[in-house]
Every structure is written in C-alpha cells, then in structure tokens.
C-alpha cells in the first residue's frame, strides 16, 4: 500500500474536497490491469459480469464461486485502485450470518477491499452485520437489477415524490448502518443531487446525472463490447466489438489464403538437419 492507494478514507477526503471519484467495473486480469493503470479510483467486480462475460440473461444466476473467480483475477492485477466485490443475489439476503460468511470469502479468498449489496431497508440488517464484522460495505439504491422484477423491469426509479422520498430514506438509512459509499442507479439527476447533499458518505452515480460525488459505468458498455442491452445513460467511448471482429476476420482470411504464418512466425533449423529430416 502506498500514499496513492485508494481506500475508504481517500473517498471521504475526495468528497470533502469536491474531487470527483471514478469507478468502473472489471471482471478479469487484463482489463483490471488497464483500468488500474489508467488511474480509476474504484474497480467494481460487478455481478453485471454474469451478463457481460459469462453470458447469462440477467445478473440473477451468478454464483459466489463465479464472482470469487472474477474477483481473484481482478485483485491480482491491481496496485492502486480499491476493489469492491458485488455480492450476488441470495448470498446475503436470508441471514446476516450468511452475509458475513460470504462477504468474508470475498475479503479472504478474493482479496477484495470491500463488498457491495443492493437495496435499501431490506438490506440494512446484513449491511450492519458485515460492517460490524469489519468489512467495508457499499450500498446501492434506485434501480437494483437483482430485484428488477419488483421494479417493473430495468427502468428509471424515483420519479414521483413518494418514490423519491423512499430512495432518499433508504440512502440515509444505509449511511447510518455504516455503508462507506452508495451507488445511485437510474434516478433523476435532481434527486441524486439532493441525496448527495444530505449524505456525508460519497454517492457514485450511474444514470443519476452529474451531481453525484463520483460516476461508474460498466466497462463493456464504455468499450462497446456488449450490446445486448444498452441503457440510455451509457456513453460508448470505443467500438472494441468492431475492432475485434475485424482482427478475427482478417486472421481467418490470412489462414485460408495462406498468408499466415510467414517465415517471421516460423522456427527454423539448420539446412543439414532439415535435409536429414526430409529423408527420414
Ligand atoms: O454490477 C454492476 O455492474 C453494478 C453497477 C451497475 C453499479 O452494480
């Protein structure tokens, strides 16, 4: 750990000083290496990896073992960023004891620095339990994809006054329960601004406008690597799917048309050995 390493105290300081916090998801070693080197403060091993890299339809089926494998790959790569592991659906809801055990696995086996859980008041007992066990917890309110079925799908939340008040109350309760930061997903920018002003811990927005203390995006959306579901709030900074498809097609053509491999890609032996080999 160095002076540059990001941990929960760094985030509090950044909020106090009005410096924006950057967060991205990552699910494997090579991507985590690049994200960490680019100076992103927080890396979330999101359960979105279940969709973007494991190919599930939703985040619901992702297991603890799958999340742990992705978390270990990411923490092996990272030197500066703080790594947060997303607790998968049903790894924390049933009993606070389950929540502690599973959060503990992310810290001991995955070497993550913190965990994230979705939802407000239903998650409070588990947030308190995990924090009491000595593990930093990030909250997540607004649109919560693990329980999207209760929210009429992947839709903006908190547009009416009552719904907005419930999200604000959830965020305040999570802060009181010990969450060190809270993700605000798919809520109106004005509501995110109010929540950000009321909380002492940082808010990290995704589809929550510019007034949050930080921003997060799903890496594969930003890179143009996942187009099965593209939310309105995503900004695409590259078209890696196009670049990769082009490279793979060119390789295929080169093999078919005998342009690859060339002499430069081939091991040679001395002529005498080669002659003897041909006669063998
Ligand atoms: O799993 C995930 O990628 C997330 C982000 C959208 C915050 O929870």
From TrEMBL:
> What is the name attached to this protein's record?
3-methyl-2-oxobutanoate hydroxymethyltransferase
Q: What does this protein do?
A: Catalyzes the reversible reaction in which hydroxymethyl group from 5,10-methylenetetrahydrofolate is transferred onto alpha-ketoisovalerate to form ketopantoate.
> Which Enzyme Commission number(s) are on file for it?
2.1.2.11
Q: Which NCBIfam families match?
A: panB, PRK00311.1
Pfam families listed in its UniProt record: Pantoate_transf
Q: What is its main location?
A: cytoplasm
Please give the pathway this protein is involved in.
Cofactor biosynthesis; (R)-pantothenate biosynthesis; (R)-pantoate from 3-methyl-2-oxobutanoate: step 1/2
**Residue positions of the active site:** 185 (proton acceptor)
Q: What GO MF annotations does this protein's record show?
A: 3-methyl-2-oxobutanoate hydroxymethyltransferase activity; magnesium ion binding; methyltransferase activity
């Amino acid at each position: 750990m160095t002076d540059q390493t990001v941990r929960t105290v760094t985030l509090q300081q950044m909020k106090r000083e009005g410096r924006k916090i950057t967060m991205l998801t990552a699910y494997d070693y090579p991507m985590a290496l690049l994200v960490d080197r680019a100076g992103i403060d927080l890396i979330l091993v999101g359960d979105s990896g279940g969709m973007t890299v494991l190919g599930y339809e939703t985040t619901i089926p992702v297991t603890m073992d799958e999340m742990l494998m992705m978390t270990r790959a990411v923490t092996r790569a990272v030197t500066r960023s703080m790594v947060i592991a997303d607790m998968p659906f049903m790894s924390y809801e049933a009993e606070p004891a389950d929540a502690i055990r599973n959060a503990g696995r992310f810290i001991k086996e995955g070497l993550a620095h913190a965990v994230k859980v979705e939802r407000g008041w239903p998650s409070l007992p588990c947030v308190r339990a995990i924090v009491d066990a000595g593990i930093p917890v990030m909250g997540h309110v607004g649109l919560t994809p693990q329980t999207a079925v209760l929210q009429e799908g992947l839709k903006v939340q908190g547009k009416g006054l009552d719904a907005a008040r419930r999200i604000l109350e959830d965020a305040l309760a999570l802060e009181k329960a010990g969450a060190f930061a809270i993700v605000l997903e798919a809520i109106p920018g004005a509501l995110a601004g109010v929540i950000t002003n009321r909380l002492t811990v940082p808010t990290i927005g995704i589809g929550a406008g510019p007034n949050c203390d930080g921003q997060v995006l799903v890496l594969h959306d930003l890179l143009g690597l996942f187009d099965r579901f593209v939310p309105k709030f995503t900004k695409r900074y590259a078209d890696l799917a196009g670049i990769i498809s082009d490279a793979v097609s060119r390789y295929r053509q080169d093999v078919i048309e005998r342009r690859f491999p060339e002499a430069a890609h081939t091991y040679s032996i001395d002529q005498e050995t080669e002659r003897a080999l041909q006669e063998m």
